[in-house]
Design brief:
heterodimer, A: 165 residues, alpha/beta, globular, B: 421 residues, 5-stranded parallel beta sheet
């Protein structure tokens, strides 16, 4: 998939409590969750994020709780892809399972500035900072995980598999 | 002859039907148990319904509403209702209603539901707690849990393992909580990212089960996928009489390959507190005495077990909570609660002016039962001190052992039990 949008930059160890605070976990409605995405980190985020925008963060993005509400809130807020130096493992699985695109690329994270326009191709792993013209390549997904993404998430992969049996 | 393997590798290989696995290998495993709570189960249940009408095995799906239960508001009541109705419809054996419910990771080992050698996924990040029993258990999101409930299967990337060898003599007052805070302080909140942690050595061998659970519980706070300990006589004594089905002990091979071996001298560990806003931001309690507190919370899946209650009560006995502090004690299960009454600990807490709550995760995740106002500070025996974790985004949480939290509640600032004399 190809995406193009404005980069919003944050630091390392962005935890799931700031991505979506537990006080809003009494619902799993994506629209409700999106209203509070990242509000304890940046009260302006929801106001400034536009559909198609891109989150850029340092190491260990999504650490903490297993709440799937976190990738759901990010996606529903309009973000198409998160580029980070590394992802916490539960968040990594949850993003793939819920169809939020993620890319691991330390070089791109070091170079991209907040406000830069960035385009990505998740299949080739290519990341282009359109503002500076620099190009980067993210770590490719292992084939098994690429298969889940291609199926449209883990549930669809199982539906396809059970349908064939 | 298969390759020598770590505990994590052995348990995963056995559940994938393979003789051996290597780190990095992607495998599909048969699950022994799948867990979810009132926050994560509603999404997992939707996932189950997309795939099938019936869960793979009603005895192997565990539903524990504990986060916002007894319900804190109408929305959380609706979430719990979804779980309750699903449990009835599917004849789920291990569904725990209010009155039987406890904090999931204290309750399930206590009730003998989880055992050594199990492969468990749970839609709660602290599912890694059962590593203390020699199980490979790990937190996942709701979709993974839902697929697990529907199919009995999950995919895993076999993690490499970091071995923590903890030997030597512990200092007085150092508990399992101080050991794991020390480790997280040393390696950081992503120090074990994508990896399993295995804890061994004299210090672990001499710890009671409740303190071992505290260590495995916080493996996730170092990014770990699991926090494993070998089964020994202490583990067997705990499981015998609780776990009714046969359990399997997987011991690491002596020549197993570890990604890293970290040796820790028990004498280097002191009573420790994690400052805001990361569990890795640790300092000795002795250097934190200038931090005034408004609240102390003693409970949670990390430190809400009987030994934790005993350690807190030993400090609070004959003393009063500081007039500027609210001290909230939450025994993690009904059994712990009852035992607190039988041992007279409840009298100690009430005499000291503590509020004692029915089991719930409550304030640990900023749910209810002790939310912080702007700028307020709490010391807590819980597991996370992220921004806004227990309330207002400008509030602060300091993580400690039960004895340090209890002493701090009396002092009005962070401190050690010996500061009270």
């Amino acid at each position: 998939m190809q995406f193009k949008g404005t980069a919003h930059r944050y630091g390392r160890d962005i935890d799931t409590d700031v991505i979506i605070p537990a006080r809003y976990l009494t619902t799993s409605d994506p629209v409700e969750l999106a209203k509070h995405c990242l509000e304890d980190l940046d009260t302006q985020f929801v106001a400034k994020v536009a559909p198609g925008d891109i989150l850029v963060a340092e190491e260990n993005f999504g650490c903490g709780s297993s709440r799937e509400h976190a990738p759901i809130a990010i996606k529903a807020a309009g973000v198409d892809v998160v580029i980070a130096k590394s992802f916490a493992r539960i968040f990594y699985r949850n993003a793939i399972n819920t169809g939020l695109a993620i890319m691991e690329c330390p070089a791109a994270v070091d170079a991209i500035k907040g406000g830069d326009v960035v385009s990505v191709d998740t299949e080739t792993g290519t990341i282009v900072d359109e503002t500076t013209g620099e190009t980067f390549t993210a770590q490719p997904f292992p084939p098994f995980i690429a298969e889940i993404i291609e199926a449209g998430g883990l549930v669809n992969r199982w539906k396809n598999k059970l349908g064939q049996e | 002859m298969t390759r020598p393997m770590t505990m994590a590798e052995k348990i995963l290989a056995a559940h994938a039907g393979l003789d051996e696995v290597v780190p990095g290998q992607l495998i599909e495993c048969d699950l022994d148990l799948v867990l979810a709570n009132d926050v994560t189960a509603p999404i997992a249940i939707k996932t189950v319904r997309q795939i099938t009408d019936k869960v793979f095995d009603p005895e192997k799906v565990l539903l524990v509403p504990d986060h916002y239960v007894p319900n804190k508001d109408i929305k959380s009541a609706e979430q719990a209702k979804i779980v309750r109705e699903f449990a009835r419809e599917q004849d789920i054996t291990h569904f725990y209603e209010v009155g039987c419910m406890g904090v999931e990771h204290a309750l399930l080992p206590e009730q003998g539901v989880v055992g050594a050698g199990d492969l468990i996924i749970g839609a709660d990040s602290h599912t890694c707690t059962y590593g203390a029993l020699g199980a490979f258990s790990t937190g996942v999101g709701s979709t993974d849990a839902g697929v697990g409930m529907a199919t009995g299967k999950a995919w895993f990337k076999v993690p490499s393992t970091i071995l923590f060898k903890i030997n030597g003599q512990l200092n007085p007052g150092v508990t399992g909580k101080d050991i794991i805070l020390h480790i997280i302080g040393k390696i950081g909140v992503d120090g074990a990212l994508y990896q399993a942690m295995e804890f061994t050595g004299d210090v672990i061998a001499n710890l009671p089960m409740d303190e071992r659970f505290s260590i495995s519980n916080m493996a996730i706070e170092a990014g770990g996928k699991a926090g494993l300990m070998e089964v020994d006589d202490v583990t067997r004594a705990y499981m015998d009489g609780r776990v009714e089905r046969p359990y399997i002990e997987y011991h690491p091979d002596p020549d197993a390959e570890y990604a890293q071996v970290i040796e820790i001298d028990g004498a280097d560990i002191v009573p420790t507190v994690a400052f805001p806003h990361l569990p890795s931001n640790t300092r000795p309690v002795a250097e934190a005495r200038d931090v005034k507190i408004d609240q102390a919370v003693i409970g949670s899946c990390t430190n809400g077990r009987l030994d934790d209650m005993r350690q807190a009560a030993a400090v609070l006995k004959g003393r009063k909570v500081h007039p500027d502090v609210r001290c909230i004690v939450i025994p993690a299960t009904q059994q712990v609660y009852r035992q607190c009454m039988e041992e007279g600990l409840m009298d100690v807490f009430l005499d000291a002016n503590c509020a004692v709550s029915t089991p719930t995760c409550g304030p640990c995740l900023g749910g209810y039962m002790g939310i912080l106002a702007a700028g307020e500070r709490a010391i807590a025996t819980t597991n996370r001190n992220f921004v806004g974790r227990m309330g207002d985004p400008t509030s602060e949480v300091y993580l400690s052992s039960p004895a340090v939290a209890a002493a701090s509640a009396v002092l009005g600032h962070i401190g050690l039990p010996e500061d009270l004399d």
